[in-house]
Amino acid sequence: MNAVWHAAWAAVRRRKLQTIVIGVVVCAASATLVMALGLLEAASAPFDRAFATQQGAHLSAAFDPAKVSEADLTRAAGKAEATAGPFRQATVDTSEGEVFLGTLTVVGRADPGGPVDRVSVWEGRWATGPGEIVLNRAPGSDGRMELGFRLSLPGRPVLTVVGFARSVTGSADAWVTPDQVTALRPTALQMLYRFGKADTAVEVDAGRAAVTAGLAADALLGTLSHLTVKDKATSELGVFIPFLMIFGVLGLAVAILIVANVVSGAVVAGLRHIGMLKAIGFTPNQVMAVYLVMVSIPAVAGCAVGTVVGNIFAKPVVQDAVEGFGVDQLSFAPWVNVAAAVGMPVLVASAALVPALRARRLPAARAISAGATPHTGRALRIQRRLSGTRLPRSVSLGLGLPFARPGRSALTLASVVLGVMTVTLAAGVTMSMTAYNNAVRPNHTDRVELLAGPPPGAPVFAEPGAERPAAKLSDTEDESMLRSLPGTSAVLAMSQLDTEVAGGTQEATILFYRGDTAALGPRVLTGHWPDGPGQVVVPSRFLNQRGLSVGDTITVQARGNRTQVKIVGVVLTNNADQIFADWATLNVLAPGARASSYQVRMAPGTARDTYTAAVRSGDPGLRVLPPRDGTSSTAVIIISAAVVLTLVLGAVAALGVFNTVVLNARERRRDLGMLKSIGMTPRQVTVLLVTSMGALGVVGGLIGVPLGIAVHQLVVPAMAHAGQADAVDILMDVYRAPALALLALTGVVIAVLGALLPARGAARLSIATVLHNE
Amino acid sequence: MQNADAVVEMTNVRKEYSDSIALDGLSLTIRAGEAVAVMGPSGSGKSTLLNMIAGLDRPTSGSVVVHGSDLGALDETGLALFRRRGIGMIFQFFNLLDDLSALDNVALAAQLTGTSAGQARARALELFGELGISNRKNVYPAQLSGGERQRVAVARALMNRPALLLADEPTGALDSRSGEQVMDLLLDLNQIGQTLLLVTHDGRLATRCATRLIEVADGRIAREHSLERA
């Protein structure tokens, strides 16, 4: 054994480049494996993990402080396994602020921790004093507000944003200190409960009954079950799961391919050495052991470093992906690191075993001459054909090189294909997410949203200190006025009604549009926009959640009126509970109702301030809403994760090419020396070796792009279905000819980047040393 | 002062390695049409001498001028271009590309200069005819005998009509019959005007092919003789 170790250690020290290449490749592969397994693990039940990490509330309940005291709530809560609260809760309308955040549920809470709903503060800090507010926002969301933003609302204290936090339970939209919430005029008391059993709606209902027993019957204003939150989160953030899983599988495949390529290449390159060991008396088993140990030493070292690096490097990526679920500090399950730390050396040994067994069986003389055996007939035929072409000789020689080692070339090609697939898929997902986000959350700077004031003569409810002038003009006069203003390009009047859909379990909102719906309404994907009373269009999520389809008729009820409407099309929006109709249908359900808001598209070059001033002058009752804060955090996270994963997997694929060129140059050093001796310049040697891989890059691009597109066509629908939407054309038809050409080139880029460094090294070979060292 | 008909002019060439001195102030002139044999024991510096003239290695000091080119002034690319047209090399172990047929191995040298594949093959066929191996043109190196391989290597070396043919132990890996054939070939080449520099251990080769014999020891020229061909 001592002789085996000495021989192996000597080989490791003598073959420094090979040792370094194996170490680096195994390190990169281990890091990729950690990331891949981490992604796969993160992709499994992310909500449950986040919920467990935060000790999410099984039930959030709001109580009427006029009907129940804090002491009563605390006493009744004893029947729950764990509780948080009571917290005083206020409702804040932000429509008059600089940034429109809708209606915020603000809770007074002294700290983010506790036994239930451990809110994770991912930026800034928790509110500790008056005038401070922390917003509930998913990490990575690209909002208009940053830390230090001052939220100024009429009749309310000015609140400075000191932190962003995430509650997986969704217990509030924002938090302030308990003292501060008093100034916001709280209207409810919030209790957060965890129950011993809460896996089903029945168990949650039982828990609710227990904690509300003995309280006034009408004290409970509303509840939110964790099952409802989970349904929503799964539909919105579940889009990550297929995305993460496919990247995890790709990472795993690239890691395995490259390790197999590197290790088998190293064994083949060492056949002569093995033969010599046999010649001096090593038994076949000892020779095999020498070789396995020689390969395992850098592999184990690379694996150890790679596992650590993988944790450091992969966690932020995976963290980004799962942060949307509210996970604060991600830690991979132990099996991820164990699998990488143990699995990779086993993989390396397995990859080395097959060629080592072959070497073990070889007679010493054949092993010694193994590297010099003539190549196969196919390679020779291809070289002969190439030598007759008009291509520069360095290029034609390079093109023929991959055929001399078809197995190695196939493994290298496979890693390039996977690299190109990854880039194609990531680019496609990015384009899909961008297109979808732009379609459903338009954030156009040329749009102005206007809120209609109360009708003339109607009572005006306003907060003390807030001025809320009544409308000066009627609905039709407002629309006419807006259309007549200089700079108006299109106008859409809108009104909405909350409705019950008969037979359904959920309420919905009907949005009635009048005016330039083609320019400003949601995009119609299938069917047509309503062109008469009794027609509606809905988003695909509406259909999917209710099992409906275009052409079906549904009954809607609002303000005591009931009517049947026919679904005539599908529109692209992200809200499952919206129905769109035209004004004729509004007149059936709410005769005489006026528009509650208007949306205007300004002509190019129109100054927003000048335009809004003209609007106010035309009707002081029209309130200009601040621009919407509406970028999808999901899109941002998916796109950034796709970019990082693409870079990592592309780099690992390039490393596979690097290794192949190192091995080829080592095996061919005598040929390269001879070529230089008859006048091949260093640049031509570089071109020869780079071309050999560039050819694989071209083929890899041609194979990888269609495969990447095929995977995109599988993954994106899976992502859409996870979000309870349909894979509409805007998501699917994202690849255009210029993009495809660029994507096909990525194979060449990966190959050239991987080949350049070792090719330049080979070009600097000393001819004298190589040719005289026989 | 440069000799007008000198193909090689080495002046005070010194080559040091980390632990030894390979050439120690060696000066040598080879004129056009000469056949010079360099002999000496292992480690005497004869291969280093050949490498210096072929532009495969650079002297630590001194100058090497071959066919008017000062090799010390050339960068790696310049040296490659010099080797392309200025010299032809024959090695002990032939150094043919296993992937290419005999004909393509020879044509390759011309193709590197930009000659078209058709023209390069025509020139290679011409050389195959002159060297008597036309019937082996489509055979791969592994299927050739040692003598045939060396003839192919000679054809490759002559492909671009070099001013100087360098041969490093050209018969060292051949049986005696093949060695004889290669010797005859080199003799014929010199007799039609090809300048030749042989590095060899084989005294028979030297006396048969060379017109001048240089004995090298410890990196210096120990002795120099004019030879009458046998």
What does this structure look like?
The complex is a heterodimer of chains A (774) and B (230). Chain A is of the alpha+beta class. Chain A has 4 domains: 188 residues, no CATH class; 154 residues, no CATH class; 210 residues, no CATH class; 178 residues, Barwin-like endoglucanases (Beta Barrel), CATH 2.40.40.20. In chain A, 53% of the residues lie in helices and 16% in strands. Chain A is built from 26 helices and 20 strands. In chain A, the strands form 2 sheets. In chain A, strands 1, 2, 3, 4, 5, 6, 7, 8, 9 and 10 form a 10-stranded mixed β-sheet that branches. About 1% of the residues of chain A have low confidence. In chain B, helix 3 crosses helix 4, helix 3 runs parallel beside helix 5 and helix 5 packs parallel to helix 6. In chain B, the strands form 2 sheets. Chain B has a 6-stranded mixed β-sheet, sandwiched between helices. The longest helix of chain B is centred in the C-terminal third of the chain and has 16 residues. With 230 residues, chain B is α/β, with parallel strands linked by helices. Chain B has one domain: P-loop containing nucleotide triphosphate hydrolases (Rossmann fold), CATH 3.40.50.300. At the A-B interface, helix 13, helix 14, helix 22, helix 23 and helix 26 of A face helix 1, helix 2 and helix 3 of B.
Strand coverage percent of chain A: 15-25%
* Number of helical stretches of at least 4 residues of chain B: 7
Largest sheet of chain B: 6 strands, mixed
The overall pLDDT average of chain B reads: 88
Count of separate structural domains of chain B: 1
Using only C-alpha atoms, the radius of gyration of chain B works out to 17 Å
Binned strand content of chain B? 25-35%
Mean pLDDT across every amino acid position of chain A: 79
Kindly report the CATH topology of chain B: Rossmann fold
Gyration radius of chain A, rounded: 34 Å
Q: What is the CATH C-level name of chain B?
A: Alpha Beta
